[in-house]
Amino acid sequence: MNVGIVKSFLYMYAGLFAITNSIGAVPVFLSVTHGISLRERIEVARKVGTTVVVTLTVFALIGQWIFSFFGSSVDAFSIAGGILLFKMALEMLSGEISKVKMGDVEEEEAEMITLEDIAIIPLGIPLISGPGAITTVMLYMAKNQAVLERALVLVTIFLIGLTTYFVLLSADRIEKTLGNVGIKVLTRMMGLILASMAIQMIINGIKSAFGI
């Protein structure tokens, strides 16, 4: 297999994994699914994974149209997206779920919705596939024009959805193993990775826009 393709895949997967931060979402998942049966929890986890795949795939496919419709360049979007991701990273470095992904209103509404809706709001959107993840997949598609490269982006999205499903399925075990402190430490580590990615996105956008 082409080494470049493998490196590209690992970069995209690691980036999306850090941004979606499904492990950091474990406490929220356990909270909103408290008191339901194991079968129902499995179903919720499956729907969350499906929601993540569908949401990110749709925005990945229509991203180019959005750029054209609003007259925005990929470079400008890269700079703006980098700033957004950096804000998320700073909040993750404090060990908290980013408010860019889920605000106080969404948290309050989570208590008012039915079990069928929980998988979509707030878990699937905006907790896991939030603005940061959406921005990232749109940039991945815009930067990769070859058919194989774009197919790789879609495969990455599918694997992120699958990862999300298995992480939430193992939520009890993860919480017992890591504890709240462990989850916060891991969230901070992902925040650091995300911060470096965000800075690189901003640098690349500026260099490309000004021909540096």
Automatic annotation (TrEMBL):
Membrane-spanning residues: 12-36, 48-70, 118-141, 147-168, 189-210
GO CC, alphabetical: plasma membrane
Subcellular location: Cell membrane
Pfam families named among the record's database cross-references: MarC
Membrane topology: Multi-pass membrane protein
InterPro entries listed in its UniProt record: Multi_antbiot-R_MarC
Principal location class: membrane
Keyword terms: Cell membrane, Membrane, Transmembrane, Transmembrane helix
Protein family (similarity comment): Belongs to the UPF0056 (MarC) family.
The name this protein goes by in its record: UPF0056 membrane protein
Species per Swiss-Prot/TrEMBL record: Palaeococcus pacificus DY20341
